[in-house]
Predict the 3D structure of the following.
Amino acid sequence: MAPVLSGPEGAPWQDGKRYMWLTALMVPLVTIAGFGLWHRTEFSLHWWITPLFVFVAIPLMERTAKRDSANVPEVVCATLEVDRYYRWCAYLYLLLAGAALLAGASAWSSNKLSPVAQLGVIFSVGTVTGVGITTAHELGHKRSSMERWLARLMLAATCYGHFYVEHNRGHHVRVATSLDPASARLGETFWRFWPRSVFGALRSAWALEAHRLRLRRLGVVSLRNEVLLGWLLTAALFAALILAFGSGVLIFLAAQAIVGISLLEGVNYIQHYGLSRAVTASGRPEKVGPQHSWNSDAVITNLSLFQLQRHSDHHTNPTRPYQTLRSFPDAPQLPASYAALLPIVFVPRAWFAIMNDRVVERYDGDVTRANIAPYRRTALVEHYHKASMTSPLPTMSETGQGDGPDPDSRGAIPSTVSRAP
């Protein structure tokens, strides 16, 4: 049983989710199980269990699960924050992710994989390491030196060590502005966002590290450079796996890293799509608030991603641990979970149909207040101006798609098609 704590007004309180956080371990465990089943049977489709579990089973389960907007009482937050059990849940993910990576490398080097199985290995392990970036994200915000090293090691599997620098010191500062490569713009397709975010984050991380080191009168090209350190950790990890399984495994390592990076960038694309911070009288963006991130109270995906979907609270309070992140009723709400929406971001027309009107409604029909892709600005402004003159966009209350959780929506994606071009 979960420990009994003293809640509001001294009433007993227990964390009902305490042991449910182990749900996050299902992704690497399913991959390891898929490896075991393939090893016994050599049946290629066993390698596809992980993608089917994450992108089919979880969204289907969420259609029958109530959304969870309950927050931990503030009076117990301090106690939960020092309870190391919650941290061990994240540590265990990293351990199991390492085992899944080894299993994938072993299978790849066996020369027994059919082409279908090879793709399955890449997507299964890439899903594990992609979700692992979110675990590294949780640990990378901590002050403990050990947890930051664990974050670096997890990022090494996807060649994404610079994320450690750019996310904390770049993205959190520039989020929901045109200067942030990881904030997707209204009308921007995922396929244009991916290179802008990936290479923009790398350039930004290098510039941030170079500036930090020069201020301290230290050499930029040194082990003190977090970007170089991340690359060295990846090189060391990949070299060890090549020594163990042969040079052919490098193809697998590179491919699963691309899959993992793409899943992360898919989540980045969703989290701030079209949202914008207003410019103040001083010419600077307004303070980051709950209104600058898309959120979801879909419980299964939240358990699987250490509540990454409560993204507004994370940006408002970056060091707040996952177990105490709050759901804000006035924060922008997604129509479904990350697990359900991720496959859709790869199909621009479908994504625009679901999200464009929703973004504009956030700004009371004034599309110019959104963070718009420059090459789509004229078309979108003209479109929404004409729409407002002929048939105004319905309000949130009229569509039943308000910002707060909808207990009857069951995580379903709206069937209405956007009028956006």
In short: Confidence is low (pLDDT under 50) at residues 393-421. The chain has 16 helices and two strands. The longest strand covers residues 5-6.
